[in-house]
Amino acid sequence: MIKARPPTKARPSKAAAPDWRLSLYVAGPSQKSAAAFRNLEQICEDHLVGRYHIEVINLIKNPQIARDNQIVAVPMVVREWPLPIRKIIGDMSNTERVLAGLDLRSFDPSPFIARKGKFPTG
Amino acid sequence: MKKTATSPSLKELKKSPTGIRGLDEITGGGLPTGRPTLVCGGTGCGKTLLAMEFLVHGASEYGEPGVFMAFEETAEELTQNVVSLGFDLKALVARKLLLIDYVQIERYEFEETGEYDLEGLFLRLGHAIDSIKAKRVVLDTIEGLFARLSNHAIVREALHRLFRWLKEKDVTVIMTGERGDGQLTRYGLEEYVSDCVISLDHRVSDQGTSRRLRVVKYRGATHGTDEYPFLIDREGIWIYPVTSVPADHPTPDERISSGIERLDAMLGGKGYYRGSSILLSGMAGTGKTSVAATFADATSRSGKRCQFFSFEESPGQIIRNMSSIGLDLMQWQKKGRINLQFQTVRPFECGLEMHLARTMRLVAEFEPQVVIVDQMSGLETTGTPLEIKAAMMRLIDFLKVRGITALYTDLTTDGGVPALTESAISSLVDTWLILRDIELNGERNRSLHVLKSRGMAHSNQVREFVMSERGIELKDIYMGPSGMLTGSARVAQEARERAQQVIRNEEMERQQLDLKRKHDTLEGQISALRADFSAEEARIERIISHDKQREHSLVKDEVAMGRSRNHDIVKPVGSIIPRNGRNGRKS
Asked: How far apart are the C-alpha atoms of B44 and B587, rounded to whole Å?
């Protein structure tokens, strides 16, 4: 089901290289997996349009990845870039928490550097 | 470790042996195969070690590979922790007999954004099990999930699924859980495990610590329900399932000498029963250790092995002190053939349970025929009377079951029946000897008597107990009008009796002489009387003879006269006359 969608390749956008790299770990097709992907994509479209890339990793196909990446709960999204790495779990239905978890609010809509200025106060 | 035979029942649960010394005995063969077992307890009580041992023994002894899913310690830490116990986890991992998966979940990493499940964990575990074909799984401790995931409903749901799934996988599982308030585990893990629950405990009382294990529940199988002490030594966990053994002790008829001839005589002439328990109680300085050492010496002399647990003296001290009563204990400690082994016990070293466990381990290692504990009261400082009582009962039972003759000495303070041991072990001991002080005439002496000795006609006499360079001797006690006589009073009494004997002998001789003299006198008197009588007899006979003659002549004269006058015969009157008449007629 994940494969049916085109998530593993970069979203077409104006910028050449995406500023954000997100990994979505799921355990096969399920309602939660589908919801997570849908919700995450929506949030990204709202806040990071053209500047993100989502990679969906199906753990059932390669369980070793779960061990290597310390994955317990799924669906899980890992913000691989920008650093630091952040992890959020769940079906991403709670947008507020996704934004907080990915630290997106401070990012948007200002450019990446702007976040640094905000950080000490927030 | 000896496996106890399980009683035949309709359909016996399959059990996976843990290989942990003692645990398989308590559970009748191990943990339920293909089912989860909960091991719960407080921090540092040995949960992780028990679980790890289960896997290590399974992998190396029972051909069952295992997965260790660690939530608290990394693989490196776990490996390092058990190196001292001789477990080489790295080698097992390399041989694909063990797989350690450290599950790291840091709470601050997570933002929970809605519905999720723990499929990742399942996948990891499933992958781990499949990759080494594991038969055993440890989850240590899965409640880490509760601490790190805020949605407990999801965790509970996941655990329910997990255990169903593990049962389908047919793996034997140990999951560990931290003790909670008022329940076995903090997060109620027991609700997921309905088959077997084991509780571990590490308690401190009076500065001593003791570890205990209890099988809280074991569905479908009989199991010991008591708390069993255990210790963690250089070989891992060691549990003493003492009370799980039914009390059908072996009852040999064989006798074993106490080393004291008179004492053997007092005990039906042959000494103690082999495998019996002997309690020797008495005040300080009454010679308890000497009696015990004499027994040890006699045992060693007969080629048997004796183990001497001393709470008070070092081996060197005992050997030196006992040479003063003529015992050469050194000779039984030759290299290569040790008949007598000393173990010094320091009461403050560890807790009561630990002492007990250690003693049992040493006994199991040395396999003696005789065990001496000198002295039980040394344990008094290590626990409450109730605990000591329980511990002593277990020790006695432990030795009895193994057919080991055991002599326990016990210190009493008032010379009477020892309060501590009285109710605690009097019913368990077969022979009870009392050593007592007797203070009389300005000196102190010792006495020994048999308070009880089951199954033998034992003496009820109090004997004086004398120690000299010739060893221990028992002597008769004199009972006089002023009470018992011992020591120099006894010696004096002996001398007095000897003197009296002489006097009695003289008196007897004198009386015999007297009698003889009387006899002689009597004889003299008799002969004198006889002589008198003879003289009298002769005189009377002479008179009679005279009279006869005279009468005869008279009659003759009358006859002659009558004949001359020619008259008829007159019938004579009186005794003489008829004879005369007859004579006359005859003539």
From this structure: 149
